[in-house]
From TrEMBL:
Name of the protein in its database record: Metallo-beta-lactamase domain-containing protein
Native source organism of the sequence: Pseudobacillus wudalianchiensis
Keyword Transmembrane attributed: no
Domain Metallo-beta-lactamase residues, every copy: 12-191
Cofactor: Zn(2+)
Superkingdom of source: Bacteria
GO molecular function, one term: hydrolase activity
Amino acid sequence: MNWTQLPLGPLQTNCYILSNEKGECIVFDPGAEGEKLVSWLNENHLRPLAILLTHAHFDHIGAVEQVREAFDIPVYIHKEEAEWLTNPALNGSARFQLGEISGQPADHLLGNEDSLTIGSFSLRLFHTPGHSPGSISYFFEEGNAVFAGDTLFMGSIGRTDLPGGNHEQLIRSIHDHLLTLPEEVIVLPGHGPATMIGDEMERNPFLNGF
């Protein structure tokens, strides 16, 4: 199986496509440029099975409806952010000058599940709040990678000054769920380049002491 990073929109939010040898795929965080994303998927002969959201801030959900409608696939989100897809005040789009975003509710709400299987894709789920109340990190053990959203970045961590953010909670989420993964696991963040768990344990100034 392979993953592809596609930075989209004015904030260059990373959308990830996780695909298998049969041409099936999972779409993580389709944040913007829906037409471009749908074209890319079709040009690469990929058939999406689902949209998985690490969280529902506006820059991670801007193309959800276009992708969902184009391929008639379900959307998964944590139950803590069940209303965010439909409410610009909650997803933050009402605060910025990039256009308000509202769509249909998610098809599946995730809670205390520790795993998720869609087709041939098996993922471990970690509820990693702090950047937002419903942030989820998806660990793809077979590919040795974790889709971390805006929880952990190369040399940094997610911002916690937005509504629902909590710095201490974010540090605890990273420590309890991400830093317990093998050091060679690749971290696929919501913005910027990929990194590795071991590198962040050693060099991330926000995680000193862990």
